[in-house]
Amino acid sequence: MIRDITIGQYYQTDSLLHRLDPRTKLVGTLVFIVSLFIAGNWLCYALAAVWLAGMIRLSRVPLSFIVRGLKAVMILLLISVGFNLFLTNGETVLVRFWIFRITLEGLRQAFFMALRLIFLIMGSSLMTLTTTPNQLTDGLETGLGFLKKIRVPIHEIAMMMSIALRFIPILIEETDKIMKAQMARGADFETGNLIERAKALVPILVPLFISAFRRATDLAMAMEARCYHGGEARTRMKPLVYETRDRMTYLAFAAYLAAMIALNRIF
Amino acid sequence: MGIIKASKLIYDYIKRDEDGNPDGTRRAVDQVDIDIEAGSFVAILGHNGSGKSTLAKHMNALLLPTEGTIWVSGKDTSLDENLWDVRRTAGMVFQNPDNQIIGTVVEEDVGFGPENIGVPTPEIWKRVEQSLEAVGMTMYRHHSPNKLSGGQKQRVAIAGVMAMRPRCIVLDEPTAMLDPNGRKEVIRTIRELNRAEQITVILITHYMEEVIEADHVYVMDDGRIVMEGTPHEVFARTEELKSYRLDVPQVTELSWQLKKAGLPLSDGILTIDAFVDEIMTLYKKP
Ligand SMILES: Nc1ncnc2c1ncn2[C@@H]1O[C@H](COP(=O)(O)OP(=O)(O)O)[C@@H](O)[C@H]1O
Ligand SMILES: [Mg+2]
What we know:
Chain A is mainly alpha-helical. Chain A folds into 2 domains: 9-131 and 241-266, no CATH class; 152-225, no CATH class. Chain A contains 10 helices and 2 strands. Chain A has helices spanning 16-19, 22-38, 42-59, 63-71, 74-87, 104-130, 133-143, 154-184, 194-225, 244-266, and strands at residues 93-97, 100-103. In chain A, a hairpin with a 2-residue loop joins strand 1 and strand 2 (100-103). In chain A, helix 5 runs antiparallel to helix 6. Chain A is flat, with a radius of gyration of 24 Å. By secondary structure, chain B is α/β, with parallel strands linked by helices. Chain B has a 6-stranded mixed β-sheet, with helices on both faces. In chain B, helix 3 runs parallel beside helix 5 (150-162) and helix 4 (121-134) crosses helix 5 (150-162). The longest helix of chain B is centred in the middle third of the chain and has 18 residues, at 180-197. Magnesium ion (MG) is lined by residues 52-53, 172-173 of chain B. Residues 52-53, 172-173 of chain B line the site of magnesium ion (MG).
Protein backbone atom coordinates (compact mmCIF):
# COMPACT_ATOMS: atom_id res chain seq x y z
CA MET A 1 0.00 0.00 0.00
CA ILE A 2 2.70 2.43 1.01
CA ARG A 3 4.71 1.51 -2.06
CA ASP A 4 2.18 3.23 -4.30
CA ILE A 5 3.66 6.60 -3.42
CA THR A 6 5.71 7.73 -6.37
CA ILE A 7 8.06 10.63 -6.12
CA GLY A 8 9.74 12.41 -8.95
CA GLN A 9 7.67 10.47 -11.43
CA TYR A 10 9.69 10.31 -14.60
CA TYR A 11 8.30 9.07 -17.90
CA GLN A 12 11.06 7.33 -19.81
CA THR A 13 11.03 8.05 -23.53
CA ASP A 14 13.09 9.98 -26.02
CA SER A 15 11.80 13.36 -27.06
CA LEU A 16 12.98 16.90 -27.64
CA LEU A 17 11.75 17.86 -24.18
CA HIS A 18 13.61 14.97 -22.57
CA ARG A 19 16.83 16.04 -24.22
CA LEU A 20 16.61 19.69 -23.22
CA ASP A 21 18.94 21.01 -20.55
CA PRO A 22 17.19 20.89 -17.15
CA ARG A 23 17.93 24.60 -16.67
CA THR A 24 16.06 25.40 -19.87
CA LYS A 25 13.09 23.41 -18.65
CA LEU A 26 13.14 25.07 -15.24
CA VAL A 27 13.18 28.54 -16.76
CA GLY A 28 10.57 27.53 -19.34
CA THR A 29 8.23 26.26 -16.64
CA LEU A 30 8.74 29.44 -14.68
CA VAL A 31 7.93 31.57 -17.73
CA PHE A 32 4.82 29.51 -18.37
CA ILE A 33 3.64 29.97 -14.79
CA VAL A 34 4.26 33.71 -14.97
CA SER A 35 2.33 33.88 -18.23
CA LEU A 36 -0.65 32.25 -16.54
CA PHE A 37 -0.73 35.01 -13.98
CA ILE A 38 -0.51 37.66 -16.68
CA ALA A 39 -3.38 36.11 -18.64
CA GLY A 40 -6.55 38.16 -18.22
CA ASN A 41 -8.84 37.30 -21.07
CA TRP A 42 -10.08 34.45 -23.20
CA LEU A 43 -7.52 34.91 -25.90
CA CYS A 44 -4.68 34.71 -23.41
CA TYR A 45 -5.99 31.43 -22.05
CA ALA A 46 -6.43 30.11 -25.55
CA LEU A 47 -2.79 30.93 -26.28
CA ALA A 48 -1.67 29.20 -23.08
CA ALA A 49 -3.77 26.15 -23.96
CA VAL A 50 -2.30 25.92 -27.43
CA TRP A 51 1.23 26.35 -26.06
CA LEU A 52 0.71 23.68 -23.43
CA ALA A 53 -0.82 21.28 -25.94
CA GLY A 54 2.16 21.83 -28.20
CA MET A 55 4.59 21.08 -25.37
CA ILE A 56 2.71 17.93 -24.40
CA ARG A 57 2.81 16.83 -28.01
CA LEU A 58 6.56 17.43 -28.19
CA SER A 59 7.19 15.54 -24.95
CA ARG A 60 5.57 12.31 -26.22
CA VAL A 61 4.22 11.72 -22.72
CA PRO A 62 0.70 10.24 -22.88
CA LEU A 63 -1.92 12.76 -21.83
CA SER A 64 -3.26 10.35 -19.19
CA PHE A 65 0.02 10.62 -17.27
CA ILE A 66 -0.21 14.37 -17.16
CA VAL A 67 -3.87 14.36 -16.16
CA ARG A 68 -3.07 11.95 -13.36
CA GLY A 69 -1.18 14.74 -11.62
CA LEU A 70 -4.42 16.68 -11.38
CA LYS A 71 -6.17 14.09 -9.20
CA ALA A 72 -3.87 14.75 -6.28
CA VAL A 73 -4.86 18.42 -6.14
CA MET A 74 -8.54 18.03 -6.99
CA ILE A 75 -9.66 19.15 -3.53
CA LEU A 76 -7.49 22.24 -3.63
CA LEU A 77 -8.85 23.01 -7.05
CA LEU A 78 -12.47 22.67 -5.89
CA ILE A 79 -11.91 24.83 -2.84
CA SER A 80 -10.40 27.68 -4.80
CA VAL A 81 -13.09 27.46 -7.44
CA GLY A 82 -15.72 27.50 -4.70
CA PHE A 83 -14.24 30.59 -3.09
CA ASN A 84 -14.14 32.44 -6.36
CA LEU A 85 -17.60 31.36 -7.30
CA PHE A 86 -19.36 32.39 -4.13
CA LEU A 87 -17.28 35.23 -2.82
CA THR A 88 -16.74 37.42 -5.87
CA ASN A 89 -18.78 40.58 -5.85
CA GLY A 90 -20.41 41.54 -9.11
CA GLU A 91 -23.30 43.27 -10.80
CA THR A 92 -25.12 40.56 -12.66
CA VAL A 93 -26.53 38.08 -10.20
CA LEU A 94 -27.31 34.75 -11.77
CA VAL A 95 -28.43 32.57 -8.87
CA ARG A 96 -29.33 33.48 -5.32
CA PHE A 97 -29.92 31.11 -2.40
CA TRP A 98 -29.65 31.52 1.35
CA ILE A 99 -26.70 33.90 1.93
CA PHE A 100 -24.93 32.97 -1.32
CA ARG A 101 -25.25 34.49 -4.72
CA ILE A 102 -23.44 33.59 -7.87
CA THR A 103 -22.59 36.46 -10.15
CA LEU A 104 -21.47 36.48 -13.73
CA GLU A 105 -18.14 37.96 -12.64
CA GLY A 106 -17.77 35.23 -10.04
CA LEU A 107 -18.43 32.55 -12.61
CA ARG A 108 -15.89 34.05 -14.96
CA GLN A 109 -13.33 34.41 -12.20
CA ALA A 110 -13.85 30.85 -10.96
CA PHE A 111 -13.53 29.49 -14.45
CA PHE A 112 -10.29 31.36 -15.09
CA MET A 113 -8.92 30.30 -11.74
CA ALA A 114 -9.67 26.67 -12.50
CA LEU A 115 -8.01 26.94 -15.91
CA ARG A 116 -5.00 28.67 -14.41
CA LEU A 117 -4.50 25.99 -11.75
CA ILE A 118 -5.04 23.14 -14.18
CA PHE A 119 -2.55 24.59 -16.67
CA LEU A 120 -0.07 25.31 -13.91
CA ILE A 121 -0.17 21.77 -12.59
CA MET A 122 -0.05 20.21 -16.04
CA GLY A 123 2.87 22.42 -17.00
CA SER A 124 4.92 21.58 -13.95
CA SER A 125 4.16 17.86 -14.12
CA LEU A 126 5.31 17.98 -17.69
CA MET A 127 8.67 19.17 -16.41
CA THR A 128 9.04 16.46 -13.77
CA LEU A 129 7.83 13.82 -16.22
CA THR A 130 10.53 14.69 -18.73
CA THR A 131 13.40 15.35 -16.32
CA THR A 132 15.05 12.75 -14.09
CA PRO A 133 15.30 13.82 -10.46
CA ASN A 134 19.06 13.84 -10.91
CA GLN A 135 18.97 16.23 -13.83
CA LEU A 136 16.61 18.37 -11.84
CA THR A 137 18.98 18.74 -8.90
CA ASP A 138 21.88 19.24 -11.31
CA GLY A 139 19.89 21.93 -13.05
CA LEU A 140 19.09 23.62 -9.76
CA GLU A 141 22.70 23.47 -8.64
CA THR A 142 24.13 24.91 -11.85
CA GLY A 143 21.24 27.24 -12.59
CA LEU A 144 21.25 28.75 -9.12
CA GLY A 145 25.04 28.71 -8.83
CA PHE A 146 25.04 32.52 -8.67
CA LEU A 147 23.44 32.25 -5.21
CA LYS A 148 26.77 30.95 -3.89
CA LYS A 149 28.01 34.52 -4.03
CA ILE A 150 25.53 35.47 -1.33
CA ARG A 151 26.53 32.41 0.68
CA VAL A 152 23.58 30.19 -0.11
CA PRO A 153 25.04 26.65 0.15
CA ILE A 154 23.51 25.63 -3.14
CA HIS A 155 25.82 22.64 -3.74
CA GLU A 156 24.98 21.25 -0.32
CA ILE A 157 21.25 21.74 -0.88
CA ALA A 158 21.42 19.97 -4.23
CA MET A 159 23.46 17.14 -2.69
CA MET A 160 20.90 16.78 0.09
CA MET A 161 18.09 16.63 -2.44
CA SER A 162 19.77 13.96 -4.51
CA ILE A 163 20.62 11.86 -1.45
CA ALA A 164 17.02 12.19 -0.27
CA LEU A 165 15.86 11.00 -3.67
CA ARG A 166 18.13 8.00 -3.44
CA PHE A 167 16.99 7.06 0.05
CA ILE A 168 13.24 7.68 -0.20
CA PRO A 169 12.54 4.31 -1.85
CA ILE A 170 14.80 2.56 0.66
CA LEU A 171 13.07 4.18 3.61
CA ILE A 172 9.63 3.47 2.16
CA GLU A 173 10.54 -0.17 1.85
CA GLU A 174 11.84 -0.12 5.39
CA THR A 175 8.62 1.44 6.69
CA ASP A 176 6.73 -1.33 5.00
CA LYS A 177 8.95 -3.92 6.67
CA ILE A 178 8.61 -2.36 10.11
CA MET A 179 4.83 -2.10 9.71
CA LYS A 180 4.61 -5.76 8.84
CA ALA A 181 6.86 -6.69 11.73
CA GLN A 182 4.68 -4.70 14.14
CA MET A 183 1.49 -6.13 12.66
CA ALA A 184 2.90 -9.62 13.18
CA ARG A 185 3.24 -8.65 16.84
CA GLY A 186 -0.40 -7.62 16.92
CA ALA A 187 -0.19 -3.91 16.21
CA ASP A 188 -3.31 -2.43 14.70
CA PHE A 189 -3.05 0.52 12.36
CA GLU A 190 -6.49 0.41 10.82
CA THR A 191 -9.04 0.83 13.58
CA GLY A 192 -9.63 3.37 16.31
CA ASN A 193 -10.06 7.12 16.25
CA LEU A 194 -7.55 9.61 14.97
CA ILE A 195 -5.59 9.82 18.21
CA GLU A 196 -5.39 6.06 18.59
CA ARG A 197 -4.18 5.72 15.05
CA ALA A 198 -1.58 8.41 15.53
CA LYS A 199 -0.38 6.63 18.66
CA ALA A 200 -0.09 3.38 16.71
CA LEU A 201 2.41 5.09 14.45
CA VAL A 202 4.93 5.65 17.24
CA PRO A 203 6.27 2.07 17.13
CA ILE A 204 6.87 2.58 13.42
CA LEU A 205 8.49 5.97 13.58
CA VAL A 206 10.95 5.21 16.37
CA PRO A 207 12.72 2.30 14.63
CA LEU A 208 12.48 4.14 11.33
CA PHE A 209 14.26 7.17 12.74
CA ILE A 210 16.94 5.10 14.42
CA SER A 211 17.62 3.28 11.21
CA ALA A 212 17.64 6.50 9.20
CA PHE A 213 20.24 8.00 11.52
CA ARG A 214 22.37 4.88 11.29
CA ARG A 215 22.18 5.03 7.53
CA ALA A 216 23.12 8.69 7.59
CA THR A 217 26.23 8.00 9.68
CA ASP A 218 27.25 5.16 7.40
CA LEU A 219 26.68 7.23 4.31
CA ALA A 220 28.65 10.17 5.65
CA MET A 221 31.54 7.84 6.36
CA ALA A 222 31.35 6.27 2.90
CA MET A 223 31.31 9.71 1.28
CA GLU A 224 34.31 10.83 3.28
CA ALA A 225 36.17 7.65 2.37
CA ARG A 226 35.60 8.56 -1.26
CA CYS A 227 37.24 11.94 -0.73
CA TYR A 228 34.04 13.99 -0.63
CA HIS A 229 34.79 17.43 0.77
CA GLY A 230 32.00 19.68 -0.46
CA GLY A 231 31.63 21.39 -3.80
CA GLU A 232 35.10 22.93 -3.72
CA ALA A 233 37.41 21.83 -6.57
CA ARG A 234 34.94 19.22 -7.69
CA THR A 235 34.63 18.24 -11.33
CA ARG A 236 31.50 16.80 -12.94
CA MET A 237 30.95 13.60 -14.79
CA LYS A 238 27.95 15.06 -16.60
CA PRO A 239 28.43 18.81 -16.83
CA LEU A 240 25.47 20.77 -18.14
CA VAL A 241 26.06 22.42 -21.51
CA TYR A 242 23.56 24.42 -23.52
CA GLU A 243 22.95 23.15 -27.05
CA THR A 244 21.30 24.87 -30.01
CA ARG A 245 17.97 23.35 -29.04
CA ASP A 246 18.19 25.06 -25.66
CA ARG A 247 18.85 28.45 -27.21
CA MET A 248 15.92 27.95 -29.58
CA THR A 249 13.70 27.03 -26.66
CA TYR A 250 14.68 30.17 -24.79
CA LEU A 251 13.80 32.22 -27.88
CA ALA A 252 10.47 30.44 -28.29
CA PHE A 253 9.55 31.06 -24.68
CA ALA A 254 10.52 34.72 -24.93
CA ALA A 255 8.27 35.06 -27.99
CA TYR A 256 5.46 33.29 -26.14
CA LEU A 257 5.75 35.60 -23.16
CA ALA A 258 5.77 38.66 -25.40
CA ALA A 259 2.68 37.41 -27.23
CA MET A 260 0.93 36.83 -23.93
CA ILE A 261 1.64 40.36 -22.72
CA ALA A 262 0.53 41.81 -26.03
CA LEU A 263 -2.74 39.86 -26.05
CA ASN A 264 -3.44 40.92 -22.51
CA ARG A 265 -2.84 44.61 -23.35
CA ILE A 266 -4.67 44.79 -26.64
CA PHE A 267 -7.89 43.05 -25.71
CA MET B 1 58.09 -1.16 4.41
CA GLY B 2 54.89 -2.49 2.79
CA ILE B 3 52.03 -0.47 1.42
CA ILE B 4 50.32 -0.41 4.80
CA LYS B 5 52.33 -0.57 7.94
CA ALA B 6 51.22 -0.01 11.50
CA SER B 7 53.43 0.17 14.52
CA LYS B 8 52.16 -0.08 18.10
CA LEU B 9 48.80 1.19 16.93
CA ILE B 10 46.34 1.97 19.72
CA TYR B 11 42.84 3.37 19.44
CA ASP B 12 40.59 4.30 22.34
CA TYR B 13 36.91 5.13 21.87
CA ILE B 14 35.69 7.69 24.33
CA LYS B 15 32.73 6.37 26.27
CA ARG B 16 30.06 8.89 27.22
CA ASP B 17 27.47 8.86 29.97
CA GLU B 18 23.82 9.79 29.41
CA ASP B 19 24.55 13.53 29.36
CA GLY B 20 27.25 13.09 26.75
CA ASN B 21 30.12 13.77 29.10
CA PRO B 22 33.28 11.70 28.60
CA ASP B 23 33.26 8.76 30.96
CA GLY B 24 36.26 6.51 30.47
CA THR B 25 37.58 4.91 27.31
CA ARG B 26 37.23 1.61 25.48
CA ARG B 27 40.41 0.29 23.84
CA ALA B 28 39.32 -1.11 20.47
CA VAL B 29 42.76 -1.53 18.89
CA ASP B 30 45.64 -2.47 21.11
CA GLN B 31 49.35 -2.47 20.20
CA VAL B 32 48.79 -3.60 16.64
CA ASP B 33 51.77 -4.17 14.35
CA ILE B 34 51.05 -5.05 10.76
CA ASP B 35 53.01 -4.84 7.53
CA ILE B 36 51.12 -5.47 4.33
CA GLU B 37 53.04 -6.07 1.14
CA ALA B 38 51.91 -4.30 -2.02
CA GLY B 39 49.95 -6.55 -4.37
CA SER B 40 49.11 -9.15 -1.75
CA PHE B 41 45.75 -10.52 -0.63
CA VAL B 42 45.48 -10.17 3.12
CA ALA B 43 42.62 -11.35 5.32
CA ILE B 44 41.78 -10.13 8.79
CA LEU B 45 39.68 -12.45 10.93
CA GLY B 46 38.05 -11.98 14.27
CA HIS B 47 34.69 -12.32 15.97
CA ASN B 48 32.31 -9.40 16.52
CA GLY B 49 33.78 -6.57 18.52
CA SER B 50 37.37 -7.69 18.13
CA GLY B 51 38.34 -4.34 16.61
CA LYS B 52 38.52 -5.20 12.90
CA SER B 53 36.44 -2.26 11.70
CA THR B 54 38.30 0.15 13.92
CA LEU B 55 41.60 -1.03 12.48
CA ALA B 56 40.21 -0.82 8.93
CA LYS B 57 39.12 2.78 9.42
CA HIS B 58 42.70 3.68 10.28
CA MET B 59 43.83 2.55 6.83
CA ASN B 60 41.69 5.25 5.24
CA ALA B 61 42.32 7.96 7.83
CA LEU B 62 38.65 7.83 8.87
CA LEU B 63 40.06 7.34 12.36
CA LEU B 64 43.43 8.56 13.56
CA PRO B 65 45.53 6.60 16.06
CA THR B 66 45.35 7.45 19.73
CA GLU B 67 48.93 6.19 20.02
CA GLY B 68 51.35 4.64 17.56
CA THR B 69 51.54 5.28 13.84
CA ILE B 70 50.09 3.90 10.64
CA TRP B 71 51.63 4.58 7.24
CA VAL B 72 49.82 4.17 3.94
CA SER B 73 52.33 3.91 1.11
CA GLY B 74 54.86 5.51 3.38
CA LYS B 75 52.65 8.43 4.43
CA ASP B 76 51.75 8.97 8.06
CA THR B 77 47.92 9.15 8.15
CA SER B 78 47.86 11.47 11.15
CA LEU B 79 49.33 14.39 9.18
CA ASP B 80 46.73 16.70 7.66
CA GLU B 81 48.61 17.17 4.42
CA ASN B 82 48.55 13.41 3.75
CA LEU B 83 44.78 13.00 4.19
CA TRP B 84 43.70 13.05 0.52
CA ASP B 85 46.70 11.02 -0.63
CA VAL B 86 45.90 8.38 1.95
CA ARG B 87 42.24 8.20 0.93
CA ARG B 88 43.16 7.96 -2.73
CA THR B 89 45.69 5.21 -2.08
CA ALA B 90 43.47 3.06 0.09
CA GLY B 91 39.84 2.78 -0.98
CA MET B 92 37.25 1.41 1.39
CA VAL B 93 34.19 -0.81 0.88
CA PHE B 94 31.75 -1.18 3.75
CA GLN B 95 29.37 -3.83 4.97
CA ASN B 96 25.96 -2.42 4.10
CA PRO B 97 25.62 -2.10 0.33
CA ASP B 98 22.70 0.33 0.60
CA ASN B 99 24.45 2.82 2.82
CA GLN B 100 27.48 3.45 0.65
CA ILE B 101 25.98 4.08 -2.76
CA ILE B 102 25.44 7.79 -3.26
CA GLY B 103 24.33 8.04 -6.88
CA THR B 104 20.81 7.36 -8.11
CA VAL B 105 22.21 5.77 -11.28
CA VAL B 106 24.95 3.12 -11.23
CA GLU B 107 27.38 4.96 -13.50
CA GLU B 108 26.93 8.22 -11.62
CA ASP B 109 27.76 6.52 -8.37
CA VAL B 110 30.96 5.11 -9.83
CA GLY B 111 31.84 8.62 -11.01
CA PHE B 112 31.33 10.14 -7.56
CA GLY B 113 34.86 9.47 -6.28
CA PRO B 114 36.67 10.80 -9.37
CA GLU B 115 34.43 13.90 -9.28
CA ASN B 116 35.50 14.55 -5.72
CA ILE B 117 39.19 14.42 -6.51
CA GLY B 118 38.79 16.75 -9.47
CA VAL B 119 39.42 14.35 -12.36
CA PRO B 120 38.59 16.02 -15.73
CA THR B 121 35.27 14.97 -17.29
CA PRO B 122 36.52 12.81 -20.22
CA GLU B 123 38.88 10.98 -17.87
CA ILE B 124 35.99 10.32 -15.45
CA TRP B 125 34.05 8.60 -18.22
CA LYS B 126 37.06 6.49 -19.13
CA ARG B 127 37.55 5.43 -15.53
CA VAL B 128 33.87 4.70 -14.98
CA GLU B 129 33.81 2.47 -18.05
CA GLN B 130 36.95 0.62 -17.02
CA SER B 131 35.83 0.12 -13.44
CA LEU B 132 32.39 -1.14 -14.40
CA GLU B 133 34.06 -3.51 -16.85
CA ALA B 134 36.47 -4.75 -14.18
CA VAL B 135 33.63 -5.74 -11.84
CA GLY B 136 31.39 -6.99 -14.67
CA MET B 137 28.63 -4.44 -14.17
CA THR B 138 28.74 -2.62 -17.51
CA MET B 139 25.32 -4.00 -18.42
CA TYR B 140 23.76 -2.25 -15.47
CA ARG B 141 25.34 1.16 -15.89
CA HIS B 142 22.04 2.97 -16.46
CA HIS B 143 20.12 1.11 -13.75
CA SER B 144 19.03 2.45 -10.40
CA PRO B 145 21.06 0.90 -7.56
CA ASN B 146 17.81 0.13 -5.75
CA LYS B 147 16.91 -2.48 -8.34
CA LEU B 148 20.17 -4.46 -7.97
CA SER B 149 20.84 -7.52 -5.83
CA GLY B 150 23.09 -7.21 -2.78
CA GLY B 151 26.04 -8.78 -4.57
CA GLN B 152 25.61 -6.44 -7.52
CA LYS B 153 25.43 -3.42 -5.22
CA GLN B 154 28.69 -4.42 -3.58
CA ARG B 155 30.29 -4.78 -7.01
CA VAL B 156 29.12 -1.27 -7.83
CA ALA B 157 30.65 -0.07 -4.57
CA ILE B 158 33.91 -1.78 -5.51
CA ALA B 159 33.79 -0.14 -8.95
CA GLY B 160 33.25 3.20 -7.23
CA VAL B 161 36.46 2.69 -5.29
CA MET B 162 38.36 1.36 -8.32
CA ALA B 163 37.49 4.48 -10.30
CA MET B 164 39.66 6.46 -7.90
CA ARG B 165 42.60 4.28 -8.98
CA PRO B 166 43.65 3.18 -5.50
CA ARG B 167 46.64 0.92 -4.94
CA CYS B 168 44.84 -0.89 -2.20
CA ILE B 169 41.24 -1.74 -1.29
CA VAL B 170 40.08 -2.36 2.26
CA LEU B 171 36.83 -4.32 2.43
CA ASP B 172 35.11 -4.40 5.81
CA GLU B 173 32.91 -7.51 5.85
CA PRO B 174 31.63 -6.83 2.33
CA THR B 175 29.74 -10.12 2.23
CA ALA B 176 28.17 -10.14 5.68
CA MET B 177 24.76 -9.05 4.42
CA LEU B 178 24.72 -11.12 1.25
CA ASP B 179 23.30 -14.50 0.33
CA PRO B 180 25.74 -17.31 -0.64
CA ASN B 181 25.54 -16.45 -4.35
CA GLY B 182 26.17 -12.76 -3.73
CA ARG B 183 29.08 -13.71 -1.52
CA LYS B 184 30.69 -15.83 -4.18
CA GLU B 185 30.22 -13.14 -6.78
CA VAL B 186 31.85 -10.48 -4.63
CA ILE B 187 34.76 -12.67 -3.59
CA ARG B 188 35.37 -13.68 -7.20
CA THR B 189 35.45 -10.00 -8.19
CA ILE B 190 37.90 -9.11 -5.44
CA ARG B 191 40.21 -11.96 -6.32
CA GLU B 192 40.10 -11.04 -9.97
CA LEU B 193 41.11 -7.45 -9.16
CA ASN B 194 43.93 -8.67 -7.00
CA ARG B 195 45.26 -10.95 -9.73
CA ALA B 196 44.62 -8.95 -12.87
CA GLU B 197 45.30 -5.42 -11.61
CA GLN B 198 47.73 -6.14 -8.77
CA ILE B 199 45.53 -4.22 -6.35
CA THR B 200 46.42 -4.93 -2.74
CA VAL B 201 43.34 -6.39 -1.04
CA ILE B 202 42.64 -6.31 2.66
CA LEU B 203 39.58 -8.41 3.29
CA ILE B 204 37.93 -8.34 6.67
CA THR B 205 35.56 -11.21 7.20
CA HIS B 206 34.41 -13.92 9.48
CA TYR B 207 33.65 -16.43 6.76
CA MET B 208 36.58 -18.82 6.80
CA GLU B 209 35.98 -20.01 3.25
CA GLU B 210 36.85 -16.54 1.98
CA VAL B 211 40.23 -16.63 3.64
CA ILE B 212 41.61 -19.82 2.13
CA GLU B 213 43.21 -18.19 -0.89
CA ALA B 214 44.70 -15.23 0.98
CA ASP B 215 48.47 -14.74 1.02
CA HIS B 216 48.48 -13.79 4.65
CA VAL B 217 45.98 -13.96 7.50
CA TYR B 218 45.77 -11.91 10.68
CA VAL B 219 43.50 -12.99 13.52
CA MET B 220 42.27 -10.35 15.93
CA ASP B 221 40.85 -10.76 19.39
CA ASP B 222 40.04 -8.01 21.84
CA GLY B 223 41.88 -5.39 19.81
CA ARG B 224 45.08 -7.38 19.45
CA ILE B 225 46.60 -9.38 16.63
CA VAL B 226 46.73 -12.83 18.19
CA MET B 227 47.71 -15.03 15.25
CA GLU B 228 49.22 -14.47 11.84
CA GLY B 229 50.64 -16.45 8.97
CA THR B 230 49.56 -18.16 5.78
CA PRO B 231 46.04 -19.66 5.85
CA HIS B 232 47.66 -23.06 6.10
CA GLU B 233 49.67 -22.09 9.15
CA VAL B 234 46.73 -20.40 10.84
CA PHE B 235 44.20 -23.14 10.24
CA ALA B 236 46.64 -25.77 11.43
CA ARG B 237 46.11 -24.27 14.89
CA THR B 238 42.44 -25.24 14.95
CA GLU B 239 42.17 -25.45 18.69
CA GLU B 240 43.62 -21.99 19.19
CA LEU B 241 41.27 -20.52 16.58
CA LYS B 242 38.33 -22.02 18.41
CA SER B 243 39.46 -20.34 21.59
CA TYR B 244 39.00 -17.01 19.75
CA ARG B 245 35.45 -18.04 18.90
CA LEU B 246 36.26 -18.58 15.24
CA ASP B 247 35.21 -21.54 13.17
CA VAL B 248 37.49 -23.24 10.72
CA PRO B 249 36.29 -24.25 7.23
CA GLN B 250 34.19 -27.38 7.17
CA VAL B 251 36.85 -29.69 5.66
CA THR B 252 39.47 -28.38 8.05
CA GLU B 253 37.11 -29.12 10.91
CA LEU B 254 36.39 -32.60 9.57
CA SER B 255 40.04 -33.52 9.11
CA TRP B 256 40.83 -32.11 12.53
CA GLN B 257 38.12 -34.29 14.09
CA LEU B 258 39.36 -37.33 12.16
CA LYS B 259 42.87 -36.63 13.30
CA LYS B 260 41.74 -36.42 16.90
CA ALA B 261 40.05 -39.77 16.36
CA GLY B 262 43.39 -41.25 15.35
CA LEU B 263 43.76 -40.88 11.57
CA PRO B 264 47.26 -39.73 10.56
CA LEU B 265 46.17 -36.63 8.61
CA SER B 266 48.24 -33.48 8.33
CA ASP B 267 47.29 -30.18 9.97
CA GLY B 268 45.48 -27.33 8.30
CA ILE B 269 43.81 -29.02 5.35
CA LEU B 270 41.96 -26.19 3.61
CA THR B 271 40.31 -27.56 0.50
CA ILE B 272 38.18 -30.56 -0.31
CA ASP B 273 40.70 -31.58 -2.99
CA ALA B 274 43.56 -31.65 -0.52
CA PHE B 275 41.43 -33.62 1.88
CA VAL B 276 40.46 -36.18 -0.76
CA ASP B 277 44.12 -36.56 -1.73
CA GLU B 278 45.15 -37.28 1.85
CA ILE B 279 42.35 -39.75 2.40
CA MET B 280 43.20 -41.54 -0.86
CA THR B 281 46.87 -41.91 0.04
CA LEU B 282 45.87 -43.29 3.41
CA TYR B 283 43.45 -45.67 1.76
CA LYS B 284 45.99 -46.91 -0.75
CA LYS B 285 48.53 -47.65 1.96
CA PRO B 286 48.25 -51.25 3.06
N1 LIG C 1 31.69 4.50 17.93
C1 LIG C 1 32.07 3.73 18.97
N2 LIG C 1 32.05 4.22 20.22
C2 LIG C 1 32.43 3.45 21.27
N3 LIG C 1 32.85 2.19 21.16
C3 LIG C 1 32.88 1.63 19.95
C4 LIG C 1 32.49 2.37 18.78
N4 LIG C 1 32.63 1.58 17.69
C5 LIG C 1 33.09 0.40 18.16
N5 LIG C 1 33.25 0.43 19.50
C6 LIG C 1 33.74 -0.66 20.33
O1 LIG C 1 35.02 -1.01 19.89
C7 LIG C 1 35.17 -2.42 19.85
C8 LIG C 1 35.62 -2.85 18.49
O2 LIG C 1 34.60 -2.59 17.55
P1 LIG C 1 34.75 -2.86 15.99
O3 LIG C 1 36.03 -2.29 15.53
O4 LIG C 1 33.52 -2.37 15.34
O5 LIG C 1 34.82 -4.44 15.95
P2 LIG C 1 34.50 -5.46 14.76
O6 LIG C 1 34.48 -4.71 13.49
O7 LIG C 1 35.61 -6.47 14.83
O8 LIG C 1 33.20 -6.11 15.07
C9 LIG C 1 33.84 -3.02 20.25
O9 LIG C 1 33.94 -3.45 21.58
C10 LIG C 1 32.88 -1.88 20.15
O10 LIG C 1 31.92 -1.98 21.16
MG1 LIG D 1 32.93 -4.50 12.05
